[in-house]
User: Which sequence fits this backbone?
């Protein structure tokens, strides 16, 4: 018998065969686009650490989202840049029905009623200390924070936000938010919990985007997970599902593909990953100086999430990836 008996390369010999044996796919349906919204009129400002990503004012949202909608991106996630004077120790602005995220959501639903909107629930865009919960001395207090998060979630649901995404990592928040939503008549408002969210250095550019960079006192290690842990992620996911999460998320993304894979094989529930600001910054800056091929690298980074077990990915490349996918059709 000729050697080698098995030729793996036979199935790679031409494009049609490669397409036939492909195990996973990436389509526009798998993309969620995070956007930054700020105060002001006709405002559009670049974020230095994230070339190609901008903060836009509410009046520019219609134009800002037009291409995403035309390309068929199913959902966006809104992050508000809260002005300094509206931040306080308890994050009161989170409960204001006319806060930036609520105004943005209403504006988006007016123009694009079928576009899904995800609202981040955590206090850090609204606190003057930059933490996701209430503080007492050095401590980020868990149980007192839950009540505020529940009111923040209901406030967002009232503004038309479809999916509440608690990113605060307080214990018990999914259950408290679920009950509050149900009590207020929002049975169909979904919860996508940031179930396994790590205390990561990859969030650095996001803090610049929200202009919350220098504000944070200390770090988030008493509530976000230790990057060294795996089993703990499964416990976090199990608890969030028991408490009523409809979908779960792993964050960051690329350095945590092992976690994504374990969550998917263990729970078989709708699973998302967040390719966070630092991951975007690494790639976008490498593209800028010509170190990596832009289109190929974007698609490869995203198919990796699908292969690992994700249903979808939150990525700042969403619109660009959708554009590339459309071109390839
Ligand atoms: C807020 C939140 C953060 C991100 C999403 N929601 C920052 C943090 O936890 O410090 C990071 C997203 C990114 O880096 O792209 N709780």
Assistant:
């Amino acid at each position: 018998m000729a050697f080698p008996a098995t030729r793996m390369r036979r199935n790679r010999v031409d494009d049609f065969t490669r397409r036939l044996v492909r195990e996973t796919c990436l389509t526009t349906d798998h993309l969620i686009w995070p956007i930054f919204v700020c105060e002001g009129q006709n405002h559009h400002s670049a974020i230095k650490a994230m070339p190609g990503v901008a903060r836009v004012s509410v009046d520019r949202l219609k134009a800002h989202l037009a291409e995403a909608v035309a390309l068929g991106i199913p959902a966006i996630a809104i992050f508000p840049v809260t002005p300094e004077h509206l931040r306080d120790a308890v994050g009161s602005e989170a409960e204001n029905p006319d806060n930036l995220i609520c105004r943005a959501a209403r504006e988006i639903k007016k123009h694009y009623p079928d576009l899904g909107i995800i609202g981040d629930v955590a206090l850090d865009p609204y606190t003057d200390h930059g933490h996701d919960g209430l503080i007492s001395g050095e401590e980020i207090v868990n149980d007192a924070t839950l009540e505020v998060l529940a009111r923040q979630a209901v406030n967002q649901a009232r503004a038309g936000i479809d999916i509440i995404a608690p990113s605060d990592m307080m214990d018990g928040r999914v259950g408290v938010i679920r009950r509050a939503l149900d009590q207020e008549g929002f049975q169909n408002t979904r919860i996508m919990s940031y179930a396994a969210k790590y205390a990561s250095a990859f969030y650095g550019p996001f803090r610049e985007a929200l202009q919350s960079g220098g504000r944070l006192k200390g770090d988030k290690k008493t509530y976000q997970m230790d990057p060294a842990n795996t089993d703990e992620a499964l416990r976090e996911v199990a608890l969030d599902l028991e408490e009523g999460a409809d979908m779960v998320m792993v964050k960051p993304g690329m350095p945590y593909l092992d976690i994504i894979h374990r969550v998917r094989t263990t729970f078989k529930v709708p699973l998302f990953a967040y390719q966070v600001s630092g991951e975007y910054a690494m790639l976008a800056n490498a593209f800028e100086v010509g170190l990596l091929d832009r289109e190929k690298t974007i698609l490869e980074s995203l198919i990796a999430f699908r292969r690992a077990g994700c249903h979808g990915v939150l990525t700042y490349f969403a619109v660009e990836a959708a554009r590339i996918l459309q071109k390839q059709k």
